[in-house]
Design brief:
With 103 residues, the protein is mostly helical. The protein is built from 3 helices and 2 strands.
């Protein structure tokens, strides 16, 4: 595993027996569940959710207190919160045609 760790999770490095994985960070996960409730039950926009998070003084993943609507939107659209996580989703593909060598 490598790259971005989604909000609500922590990276657990590999040890001798187990692969690296993501573990739920319960405090952040509760906040993600709250965001989904605000969206689905209260029908708040991502902008309004971001404003509520700032009003509540909730820190972002990088300990900033500035929540943006685009950040909330990205969190609410990620499949990882449905239990799906892709590893190496963007893989290498061999070209279908040979490339001519310049002469």
């Amino acid at each position: 595993m490598g790259g971005y760790v989604p909000y609500g999770y922590r990276y657990v490095p590999r040890d001798g027996e187990h692969r690296a994985t993501l573990a739920i960070h319960e405090q952040e996960a509760a906040l993600v569940r709250q965001m989904f409730d605000w969206l689905t039950k209260e029908e708040l926009s991502c902008r309004r959710i971001a404003t509520k998070l700032q009003e509540l003084g909730v820190p972002t993943k990088n300990d900033s207190f500035t929540w943006r609507a685009s950040t909330v939107n990205r969190i609410l659209q990620q499949e990882v919160y449905t239990g799906v996580y892709y590893y190496r989703k963007a893989g290498q593909v061999e070209p279908q045609h040979r490339v001519r060598q310049a002469s």
